[in-house]
Design goal:
The complex is a heterodimer of chains A (about 750) and B (about 150). Chain A has about 750 residues and is an alpha+beta fold. Chain A has 21 helices and ten strands. The chains are: A alpha+beta (about 750), B mainly alpha (about 150).
């Protein structure tokens, strides 16, 4: 298995390097032929028509996809079988790790992550070159070379620095197991989603490089890669939200976004990708912002690699704590090559990248899009600065000092609010120019909705803070703008077709998917902003040290600590985890609403120095939050047992076992006895209770955004297949004739 | 030690060599004239994109964001650009001795629009092609004059 895996990785690396070189030769040959240069026979040993080289490069992409797929399946097999001969399995899984998490364990390791990266990249690359067919024949070879170059980089790391098939010097009896923090359903798909986003963004990145290299810098490469960019945006967004949801429900601090370095690493390319998706529309419509657009997508590609580097290198302290990496300088080299290459290409082609037009008016959709773009880029610069600030303080003071959450709010808040305002304005403006009177006619309805939301929020107690008030106003404005656009579109369609509303609405959306999909994304984002504003402003947090029988009053709820929980889980006659928790009755208006059970789970360490009993408490631990989520409010409860009391007990038990025969077998029995006893005679525990409104709407808003993005990227029906009535043809022909006469 | 692993790698290596070298075998190379086919694919994509632009502008007009005066020149320009693309597609079709998709629509629209005038007939067909992309594709009557 190890030889097969290593062999396939080496072969895939050779094929990727060959494919990149073949694609470059093909691109060069095609260019020479197109310019009327010598034919293939003039190239001697490297003869052959350019297209043959390109097709060979294309086959290399397919082959890399096949090889990495087989390799990934092999890695999955060794994890499912818990083959502890392999280093990566011994350090990231164990016989007690449940099957589902064993299958997801590969991407918790550096080795598996790098392989996942190149595997996904090879799949997307195969898809894009397959679908490209004969289109963009001058750009595709360059794009192939870039995609294969990236694949070669990750395969190089997998072969020489971080092989998933490295064998352990000594085979351990048990693996270290998957971090309990990662044993959460959404974490099984969170990394694949993020990596799908990163690798999909590599497609427009590669085509942008190809367009610059081939000197084909019009809108063709944008049209060809638009869906890939949207898909990347969607999958990366889903990955970010899944991470956020995990942070909220699993990490035990009660928030959904902590401005952690690893969170920021995925947010930055998503934001720049958002700017790109919007600004390419200006290039498609008006031939403007070519330099800006290629720069945005090149920056997105670079930020995707930077994100992977931040996560894998561990250079910045993070709750994700993946530790130090063996691939730091290699990533820095790749980042330097990508950045330097991008700057050189854009500088080389600056003459071709000049805009065909200028912005006619500040009251136009392109001007508003551009303003939104500037805000998005500023947002990324702020996040970049805040993310690397601890590194700077480390260099200057020897200590990493991350930004406080208030500092993040101070910097990001105003930019985010400006962005939401512009999101509302964008769809209301026309391309080129809008008169003030037209702008007012378009804006007054949505503005009224915004004011209504603000008034409602203020009456509910949320008007005290300026940022919250503006979020309510702008969020309502965006939703109002989307509703107005839908209403006007349906009305126009009904006038022209006479269709009933229930027929006109889906047909309008179905035939303008890109437009209304985008509007739906805006509406979802507005819902998300309103939910974030409400949940931050009205959050009620309490931290209480309580004994059994004690009551706490939080956010209209009364919580009674009714009893302790002491439990355990066994797997194959071994202790998988010990569970210490609390049974809490929840009352509202004197009536019992439900009973919740927040717990703290302890996973055993494999280090004998931790003691026969202590090792069951000194391994990794995870908080299991009791979450009662609703449409109007969430009740979030976490508990923390008294650590000192635990240490006292297991230290005493370890002391008792010292010098006895088979202390570790007896230690397990004593640990189980201890948790059973805890259930009857618990020590006081610390509860953290949070009641926050509308948190569920954050996830619902995200779902709406995802649906909108899917709608926008869904292919339109085959236009050529539609038949049209002769009368309509005649009418348009007459219109066209008139228009030509006017033009002449 | 099992020999299956190294053997499979060798088989994969041989298959790789075969597949990567195949495009260079005699009789496999594409002819230079296929540049036309490549250009056609790009033009087809450009045509679809141009149709979408026309539809977007019409929707902006219908929803009140563009006045008649602003919309008319935009629509005219976009349609002219579409015709340029269609002309180039027609040119490629003639070179290769085949008919373009737009040409296939000629008879119905042409006869009603312009009688026997071939130039108008072509415009009618192209306009029909454009119309297929608009919201009024399945309307019973022609769109109202704007």
């Amino acid at each position: 298995m190890d030889l097969l895996g290593r062999g396939l990785l080496v072969l895939a690396l050779i094929v990727a390097v060959y494919g990149a070189v073949a694609s470059l030769i093909g691109a060069r040959r095609l260019k020479v032929a197109a310019d009327g240069g010598p034919d293939a026979t003039a190239f001697g040993a490297l003869g052959g028509h350019g297209s043959a080289w390109v097709r060979s490069g294309r086959r290399a992409i397919y082959l890399v996809a096949v090889m990495t797929t087989v390799t990934f399946v092999l890695v999955e097999i060794i994890f499912i079988r818990t083959d502890l001969r392999f280093d990566v399995v011994a350090s990231h899984s164990s016989t007690t790790t449940p099957l589902g998490y064993r299958m997801a364990a590969p991407w918790s390791s550096q080795e598996g992550s790098l392989l996942l990266w190149v595997w996904l990249l090879s799949l997307w690359s195969s898809l894009v070159v397959r679908l490209a067919g004969r289109r963009m024949a001058d750009v595709v070879p360059w794009a192939q070379a870039v995609l294969l170059g990236l694949a070669a980089f990750f395969l190089f790391l997998s072969v020489f620095y971080s092989s998933p098939f490295r064998l352990s010097d000594t085979v351990p009896l048990e693996g270290e197991g998957l971090s309990p923090l990662l044993q959460y359903p959404s974490m099984m798909i969170h990394p694949p989603m993020l990596y799908s986003g990163y690798t999909l963004f590599a497609v427009p990145f590669a085509f942008a490089v190809g367009a610059l290299a081939a000197g084909h810098v019009g809108s063709d490469w944008i049209r060809h890669t638009r869906r890939y960019a949207l898909g990347a945006w969607l999958l990366l967004g889903i990955g970010i939200v899944l991470g956020s949801r995990w942070s909220y429900a699993e990490l035990g601090w009660g928030g959904y976004w902590g401005w952690d370095a690893v969170e920021n690493a995925s947010l930055m390319p998503w934001i720049i990708g958002t700017a790109f998706i919007h600004s390419v529309m200006i290039q498609e419509k008006r031939g403007m912002l070519r330099t800006w657009n290629v720069s945005l997508i090149l920056a997105t590609g670079i930020l995707c690699i930077l994100g992977t580097f931040i996560v894998r290198s561990g250079i910045i302290s993070s709750i994700h704590a993946f530790g130090s990496s063996t691939v730091g300088w290699q990533f820095l080299t790749l980042l330097a090559v990508m950045t330097g290459g991008s700057i050189a290409l854009v500088t080389w082609r600056r003459g071709m990248l000049r805009s065909e037009h200028r912005i006619d008016s500040l009251l136009s959709r392109e001007a508003i899009f551009l303003a939104g773009n500037v805000v998005l880029v500023l947002l990324v610069l702020v996040i970049l600065w805040g993310t690397f600030f601890p590194l700077l303080t480390d260099v200057l003071t020897g200590e990493q000092r991350p930004w406080a959450s208030s500092t993040w709010g101070w910097w990001v808040g105003p930019l985010a609010l400006a962005l939401v305002g512009l999101m509302g304005l964008g769809p209301l403006a026309a391309w080129r120019k809008t008169t003030r009177a037209q702008a007012w006619r378009q804006m007054r309805g949505p503005l009224a909705v915004g004011v209504l939301v603000l008034v409602a929020g203020t009456l509910l107690g949320g008007g005290g803070r300026v940022d919250v008030a503006l979020a309510l106003l702008f969020g309502g404005f965006v939703i109002g703008a989307v509703l107005q656009e839908l209403q006007r579109g349906v009305r126009a369609r009904r006038i022209s077709t006479g269709e009933a509303f229930p027929i006109a609405l889906p047909r309008l959306i179905g035939r303008n998917r890109r437009r209304y999909g985008g509007y739906l994304v805006h509406a979802g984002f507005a819902v998300l902003v309103l939910a974030v504003a409400a949940s931050s402003a009205f959050k009620d947090t309490h931290r209480v040290h309580a004994k059994v029988g004690q009551e706490m009053k939080v956010g209209g709820y009364t919580l009674r600590y009714e009893g302790a929980i002491g439990d355990y889980r066994l797997k194959d006659q071994r202790i998988q985890k010990l569970i210490i928790g609390a049974k809490v009755g929840v009352f509202r208006g004197g009536k019992r609403v439900e009973t919740i059970r927040p717990t703290r789970e302890f996973f055993p360490s494999q280090n004998p120095a931790d003691g026969p009993v202590g090792r069951f408490f000194n391994g990794e631990a995870a908080t299991e939050v009791a979450l009662d989520a609703g449409l109007t409010r969430d009740l979030w409860v976490a508990m923390q047992p008294d650590g000192d009391a635990l240490v006292d007990v297991y230290s005493a038990l370890d002391k008792k076992l010292k010098g006895t025969t088979a202390p570790f077998a007896r230690g397990a029995e004593l640990a189980l006895g201890f948790v059973r006893l805890y259930a009857q005679r618990p020590a006081p525990v610390t509860f953290q209770v949070i009641v926050s409104p509308l948190v569920s709407w954050i996830w619902l808003g995200t779902l709406v955004m995802a649906f909108g993005a899917l709608l926008a990227m869904w292919p339109a029906p085959d236009l050529q297949a539609r038949r049209v009535r002769a009368k309509q043809k005649a009418r348009i022909a007459r219109d066209l004739g008139l228009a030509r006469e006017q033009a002449s | 030690m099992s020999v299956a692993g190294p053997l499979l790698v060798l088989v994969a290596f041989a298959a790789t060599l075969f597949l990567l070298s195949q495009p260079f075998w005699p009789g496999q190379a594409e002819r230079a004239e296929e540049v036309d086919a490549l250009r056609r694919a790009d033009l087809e994509a450009a045509k679809v994109a141009k149709y979408r632009e026309i539809r977007d502008a019409a929707l902006d007009h219908d929803t009140g964001k563009l006045s008649d005066a602003d919309w008319k020149p935009i629509d005219t320009r976009l349609r002219s650009e579409a015709v340029v693309i269609l002309d180039e597609l027609d040119g490629l079709a003639h070179v290769r001795g085949t008919r373009s998709a737009a040409g296939e629509e000629l008879p119905g629209g042409a006869a009603i629009a312009t009688g026997s005038d071939p130039a108008s007939a072509r415009d009618a067909a192209r306009a029909g092609d454009l119309l297929e992309t608009t919201d009024r594709v399945d309307a019973a009557d022609p769109p109202p004059a704007r």
